[in-house]
Specification:
The protein is mainly α and 89 residues long. Helices cover 51% and strands 4% of the residues. The protein is built from 4 helices and 2 strands. It is globular.
């Protein structure tokens, strides 16, 4: 018997949720190099000094995902995505 086959489950990503680079890569569907480029461009400012120490909050991950969508759907470069997100904030 199949109980609630259409029910989705998930985890709330908030300011208290901290994720490492590997988790962020999985959530965003990109390689670490891509996230590092986005951090270098200022799209997100993770806690920690080096990529292996970085910790991202839920809102940071959301911002990274938004930047990736802007690039994929509108063809903007990283600087353009960063500017667009800053203007939306």
């Amino acid at each position: 018997m199949n109980q609630h086959p259409d029910v989705l489950s998930g985890e709330l990503l908030d300011e208290d949720t901290l994720m490492g680079l590997r988790e962020v890569c999985m959530l965003c569907g990109v390689h670490a190099e891509r996230i590092i480029e986005m951090v270098t461009e200022g799209i997100a400012e993770p806690y920690g000094r080096s990529p292996m120490e970085w910790r991202f909050t839920g809102p940071m991950v959301t911002r990274l995902q938004q930047a990736l969508r802007l690039q994929a759907q509108l063809g903007v470069n990283l600087a353009g995505a960063a500017l667009a997100l800053d203007l939306l904030d």
